[in-house]
Amino acid sequence: MVHGGMTVYEAAQEIGVDPIIAQLRLPDLCVTAPPSVVAPTPIPAMLPGVLRRMVVCVVPVPAYDQLRSSGNILHAAASALCAGLSQPLPEQAKGKSLVSRRPLAVPVPAEACRPLLNLAREHFGGDYHRAGGWAIARGVGMALLLPSKDDLVQPCPAPVVVAAPQQPPAPPARTFAPPRRRPDTRAPLPDDSSVPNGDELRTRREALGLSQRDLAAAGGFSRGLVAEIERGRRRHILTRLRMSETLVALERDCPSAPLASPELEPVLTAEPEPTAQ
């Protein structure tokens, strides 16, 4: 297919787009001519860094809201851009503009490329993004003036170096040792030689005629504990002392005759019955 004396591939290479995209939609910048014309039609200058004439314009927020309410925002923005570029230029503003802006990608028609570049070069310092947004705002009816030199020059603010506040040095961490529990004061144990051993306790028990079970019931021991003490397997002083005191109490209760085993157990284990009043 030949357009304006050029093939699709040549036209795509000329305007800087992909040949596949050019086959889908040939840009309007390639003005078609009759096939008899061999020389290609001169192509207007393209905007730098754009693809298929899509320009990102920074549009004032009131104009952006008005375009969005129109339905097709891209078609309305392109029409407003052409209308704004065709209007006579107003006066130059004296101060800075405080209007907020929003970016909008607008398809710029071929006939509006050159006026947009001229407007950006003459009054916007070459910033065609802001020039396009200004023209769109003028096209929708906003009364905007040309930006002043102070508004165009936006120097980068010097970086403010904020010194970090110096904090006082943290005190060293203090370690606290938990207070140790003082050992409980215990009564001193009696001398081991002053307490009878297992053989002596067994001899005294047999002299009273008591069995190991009787002595265990009288002193609150178990029979196995009595047997182990008498055999010498349990040699704790306090246990032997308690058993000796039990034998002394039994000897005091029965000083003359030894108690028989069947008669001693009820007396030592049974509780006294309450007397009727």
TrEMBL record:
CDD domains associated with the record: HTH_XRE
Gene Ontology molecular functions: DNA binding
InterPro entries, sorted: Cro/C1-type_HTH, Lambda_DNA-bd_dom_sf
Start and end residues of each stretch annotated as Disordered: 163-200, 256-277
Ranges of residues in domain HTH cro/C1-type: 201-235
Protein name: HTH cro/C1-type domain-containing protein
Organism annotation: Candidatus Blackburnbacteria bacterium RIFCSPHIGHO2_01_FULL_43_15b
Native organism taxonomy: Bacteria, Candidatus Blackburniibacteriota
